[in-house]
Input
Amino acid sequence: MKLSTKLLAATCIVSASAASAVELEVTHWWTSGGEAAAVTKFAEAWNATGNTWIDGAIAGSGGTARPIIISRILGGDPMAATQLNHGRQAEELIEAGLMLDLTEVAEAGGWRDIVNPSSLLDSCTLDGRIYCVPVNIHSAQWMWLSHAAYETAGLPVPTTWTEFVETAPALREAGLQPLAMGQQGWQQNLAFGAITLAVAGLDPWREVTVNKNADVAAGPDYAAVFAAVADAREFARGSNVQDWNQATNMVISGTAGAQLMGDWAQGEFSVAGMQEGVDYSCLPGLGLNAILDTGGDAFYFPVNSDPEITAAQLELAALLISPDVQVDFNLAKGSLPVRGDIDLVAANGCMQKGLEILANGGILPSGDQSLSPDSQLQIEDLMAEFWSGDMSAEDAQARYAAIIASAD
Amino acid sequence: MTTTLAPSQARPAKRPVRLFRHLMSKVALIPMILTALVVFVGGTAWTVVHSFTNSRLLPRLEFIGFDQYERLWSTARWIVSIQNLALYGFLSMILSLVIGFTLAALLDRKIRFEGAFRSIFLCPFALSFVVTGVAWQWILNPDFGLQNLVRGWGWESFAFNPLNDPDTVMFGLLIAGIWQGSGLIMCIMLAGLRGIDEDIWKAARVDGIGTVKTYVRIIIPMMRPVFVTALVLIASGIIKLYDLVVAQTNGGPGISSEVPAKYVIDYMFRAQNLGQGFAASTMMLVSVLIILVPWAYLEFGGKKRG
Amino acid sequence: MADATLHAGPRGPKPKRAFSRANIFIYGTLLLVSIYYLLPLYVMIVTSLKGMPEIRMGNVFGPPMDVTFEPWVKAWSEACTGINCDGLSRGFWNSVNILIPSVILSIGIASVNGYALSNWKFKGSEVFFTILIIGAFIPYQTMLYPIVILLREIGLMGELSGLVLVHTIFGMPILTLLFRNYFASVPEELFKAARVDGAGFWRIYFQIMLPMALPIFVVAIILQVTGIWNDFLFGVIYTKPATYPMTVQLNNIVNSVQGVKEYNVNMAATLLTGLVPLIIYFASGKLFVRGIAAGAVKG
Output
């Protein structure tokens, strides 16, 4: 009896002294092995400050997690912090005054100077105020090639998209799938985007995607793009897999020559124990234009009426971008850190290539940052229809130009 | 079978004031009335109103007339979705009813192991759509599924690859959809069959009516309310068809297995264009109303009882 | 399995000889159909017992060469949801806590609805019912935001009672229809006789209707247990991480968009999640039979 009273008293004292420790609920959709390991780095760092990280993981990005996150915020019962793709997706929540202003923390931490590329911070900024913390960089314009497949066909491994196009028929003759492609709109759209940058280059891309110039989208530069995509469609015929990692697996096993996929495909090759340059090759910008986009993830902090939580939110924001946390997190996740002032020694060959391109300024804003999700989904639908059917390149281009004309 | 009592016997001798007639029944139905008015009428009105706005991520009341509808009906994916739903809906409704009733009738024949069979047919209903989709995706996969198996038995030319052919992909979904849902229909039918008086069977046997004929002529007409329940259950499931498609085909190949509910949800949450999503769901609701209201009037409003 | 009490149930005519043509037809059909229902289950079970290298080899129908229970252990207690690596077990009791009040409340209300609508009609009752039925056709997702606003206004957002309310609301259309149509097929004389005896609304419900409706209660329980147990969307929106149902972990195991898909763990997780409804299905057999016995009151 006495002992339990003492214990009770002791607990009271402990909890009273730890009153400054705050529990923050954090929502994110990082649930695969590497991703979860990366989140753990965040959580450990946060718990080390004496606070508590309450993990609210929900798998399945856009379609699944977003309505949940937004419902919670709208219902007046928000989480303390949440992952969202930065860019235009959270604009309205910010305008509605539902997101915490991080400008002071950003200025105190000198984010303007350390975040590289600076476009990452721009997409967190609305009317000069900063509302999110970018935490990593992913890029989509990569081609992954199987050395085993080219060995089977008796050909040298291509170093550019153009060379790949030349070798594709030979691969087909050797009974191999030239291009592995998952039958999902976003993957086909990703391939379209990568081919656009490789074939048309930066200027027409910027004119269409950023300035929404429908004339350029209907013009000769993009006609060449659509012709190239129509070729790619033929190379991808017979690839019946759905998920992107199944397509990557075709490249790993040597049944397919190549795949167009973002830098996250790297993880699959590592898990399979393959060596860059020996078993597979990676070509950023498809080997033609050394330009990478800088998509990635960011954290937002919904406004909370409890001042204690608000203070903790600002503390967490500063923590996520601090140098040690950035290194630990990005090594676990296989993505690039958002700070230009840290050295990623442990990065492997493909990551080094990516870092080099970014350092040389081969940077473009990701589609997330320039086109609204609405326009993106319309393009995705078009690409899904185009890649799996017999739509002519001209028709596809006309419909693409119409989407761009009405895009916002 | 029915010797109806005269109404005067059934009711209390003095009729109370109209408002208080069946007062307890009205009190008991308050939760239902609130749900119908506040949630379904209110929520639907809210949705319809917002379908005329340019709401993006958050609901906003900036009206733009019929723009969302014009865009909707000029979208190839929406048209394909509707055609798919019509095909799937028609076949699924007929097959579910036929399979469900036949299985229930077979189980009702005083057979051994009824419990085991019933549980087998019902099992799929317990499993989430996501993995149902994956399992069927494998079975229908030409390289390591059914086609491969049959070819392995020596029938080299056997071809069965519904999921990768735009013309047949809806049938691939149908196989999985029926698999998942028909067990429940069977259960409802069985409950209905169990509610039918044993004397009916005796009378039919005395009159020398065959088994099949008894089912078709006597039992099925008597089970009309049960069929209505089953039909509404199937139809509402068809309209909401979403998870299975996402898991099994994700709308592919291309857009050839897209369905309206997926369009609504994709445009609401992935495209963050609530207005467009609401316009699509309003169109779904309108078509439900066109089919349902005349029928509901005949079914529920026409005749009075009790 | 097929003891004497089971035979008390079915009402169809009794086939005469064990190997009559009718019998061969019946059992033959049932066995054939069973293959269709069991094949995917077989694939799932077999896959859940294989290791990943074996799955990559690709024969989905082949029995496992090395039986391993590791995927089951992993799905139950090791699979990670973000930073918490304790598998499905994490949400099991949360799911139970959500399931029990939701099932009881939704079936309780709906059975009274059905009873009142079929036996105690009043002017306008069918109008509300028709609205309710049309409500069954609205995709849940379009109702998300109105419900969020509603719950916010009545202060139940983020509460367990809010989630129970949502399940009751969305279960109501089909369940009410189920009970209404079942009670409508109950012979009217029974109800009228009770009224002549002076029984009121609730007495008739509890003493006459309830015992007779066991088979339809079984169907309702099957419907609700499955629906609520497998619900992911409402469970995750209207609760918090500490009270997330099991399906959130299931979703996280099955739906991970990046990384290697562990199909064996996915299948094990699904089968594990499906166990609770499955147990209800098996248990329901007895009630089905007892419902018939109770139904004898009718005659």
Observations:
- Chain A is about 55% helix and 10% strand.
- Residues 142-293+371-405 of chain A form a domain with the D-Maltodextrin-Binding Protein; domain 2 fold (CATH 3.40.190.10).
